User: Fold these one by one.
Assistant:
Number 1:
Amino acid sequence: MIQTDILIIGAGPCGLFTVFEAGLLKLRCHLVDALPQPGGQLSEIYPKKPIYDIPGYPSILAGELVDNLMEQIEPFKPGFTLGERAETVEKVGDKMYRLTTSRGTQIEAPVICIAGGLGCFEPRKPPIEGIEKYEDKGVDYIIRDPEVYKGKKLLIAGGGDSALDWTIFLSDIADEVTLIHRRTSFRGALDSVEKVMDLAKDKKVNLITEAQAIGLNGNGVLKEVVVKTKAHGEITQSVDNFIPLFGLSPKLGPIADWGLTIDKNAIEVDTRDYSTGVPGIYAIGDINTYPGKLKLILCGFHEGTLMVQSAFKYINPDQKLSFKYTTVAGVNGFES
């Protein structure tokens, strides 16, 4: 039986940073994640993707951010149970929960912090007949290593941040990049939209709006994508890779059965401390919802910071919380 102060479900960036904030208050943490390594989506889906909204970093690769977070929390010696999904939670005392994983591992803690990102997720696939036979043979829903596309002809589909960011990034790596989107307007950040438009004007990216992929051709390996456009009808694009980036389809999985208040696959929380309404259980990051919610990593960092303050008071109701600035450092860690 593993025992800790805060059990964090989800070892993504928000879960990892929560370990640091908890460590400042001398609270021990143990993290559980269904993925085989820390980092969540940053490690599993796009470790080489640049991130632009982390304070102090004009640009940082997702995998590098994970490495930095792991280095930051190392002094606090968190525990990890990886490759196991959180299955059931039961109350075993006045202020104690016992979580059992998909492999039977049991962990007890007075506080549970759900930082599961989007929960269990899978890529949203375009409704193209026969697309499955080209998966990993020219059709990729996730970009893990952009160097794979060096010198290739790429067709990217989508209108959100992922499609825009990867179009910008891969324009310097691939031989040819075409971006198609079924609308004329994009859902991504305005700065990214402007960069893609500038790349299109400079002929560094082929941009086709009011268009969508409707067919794939090849002999075991993808060779062509049939695109239906408003301006030119059906056109056939010769490609090495077709990359539809339509986001992820989230599912809460077993967490949905834990008696929490759920709204559209997200957990409702109180923004004073990101508590769920069930004493001792909190939710931070993309998995929670509240009025004005922004699904940004830096917002998850803020939520984790306030959560551990509340968790300390919940665990130690009679102990005065003395929190110093993190500029006050000890030799092997931080004083609190």
Note: DSSP finds six helices and 23 strands in the chain.
Number 2:
Amino acid sequence: MATIKDVAALAGISYTTVSHVVNKTRPVSEEVRIKVEAAIQTLDYVPSAVARSLKAKTTATIGLLVPNSLNPYFAELARGIEDYCERNGYCVILCNSDDNPDKQRSYLRVLLEKRIDGLIVASAGGDSGLAQGLASVRTPMVIVDRGLEGVDVDLVRIDHEYGAYLATRHLLELGHRDVATIIGPQTTSVAQMRLAGYCRALEEAGIEVVPERIVQSDFTSTGGYAAATVLLQHNRPTAIFAANDLMGIGVLRAAAELNIRVPGELSVIGFDDIQMSRYVYPSLTTVGQSILQLGEMAAEVLLRRIATPQRSTEQRIVTPSIVMRESTAPLAGVFAQFR
């Protein structure tokens, strides 16, 4: 691999002059610049990012830690972050923890060793060790999607409780009174807030919260499918609020296998508005926000933190809204008589 000294020798000038051309640290004549650029092209020379970062005390690199890159939500979130960073001259290193707290902490160490300029963390949840580790980090940081108790940094997330409230209220406004929910692991703040929103909507409508209508599962299509299979076998509800779209897609599959018509016999609503929810059949009504914009917002907050590290911490709570599609409908009058 060619070095800066090889470039200098070919161009017939000092390697310090080559450094000035490469790093734009001092003006040089047009003739010299042309010689250096020609030598760089001939030798296919690639400047050392490590050496340049040591001089500039910046790497123009952002670390992104997500719990599950197979989840379309986090894939879309990462794309929004990457797009915004690329437009502003930053590269993104993506690390996927597979919802594993140990792997999450390991990747955190790796990212910090890379001398990243900033860090965006979407926590796997239920990991006090990660919270303790992040509390001592001095690198500019933003938490996105799932808050971490005891970590006083910038936060960007959707209003999970209000979104679940909206979803459940939507089903109630359609005439449903037997509304079940499939929630995520209660070790995560997201699942806790979405359950709270579900309960609040029922209580406001004067409907008892029935523990048997609350089924906990994983935030996956498999989790939604397994939970729905339990809910739909006997004395089934007329509507289900699935705590994310992947779960909702699993519910649609379970209903199809049991020959339950959606939305004729069962209304289903999800949460997140991932792109896939538009293309399943029937298309999934959901509570959403632009995930890409949420990612861009997280990146914007982080880059501002890098530029002004002393400013007070910021919380951006994004208000979701109902995205109407085909999987919810008014409770059928004939069917309602038998409830």
Note: The longest strand covers residues 61-66.
Number 3:
Amino acid sequence: MKIAVGTDHRGVDALSHIVNALEHKGLAVSRLGVCDEGICDYPDTAYPVASAVAAGQVDRGILICGSGIGMSIAANKVKGVRAALVHDEIGAELSRSHNDANVLCLPADLLGMRLMLRIVDTWVATEFAGGRHARRISKIAAIEDGRHPNDTDRPAKLLG
């Protein structure tokens, strides 16, 4: 499995531990959006990781910022990305098995390192369950394409 990783300035330390753990498992890790020095903006680091996932250059992505919220919002703007902000192992498992999340977003300021590593382990090990969940992922893709989720011939009603 190939995993792209990225972080803003808030998650640099956490990302280092996560990369080491992933590489120890024999996974290929690409650092595509990593803040090297000073303060950097989460959209600048979310975009290269999310784009690599959407283009199929990597299988999954992991993004870290202070709260995880900004990374999640930014990554989910890239078509084909299903980024999940996760705070525990149950969320990690469900984000993969039910939602086929292809990007994991973590809050460096809110979780301890041990918990983040357990979340990553669970998320990497969990496969998509398919079945009824595949239908729901197709509906998400329809929304992403501007279509109504229940009728692919009918355009989505835009708000505003």
Note: The chain has two domains: 2-128, 130-160.
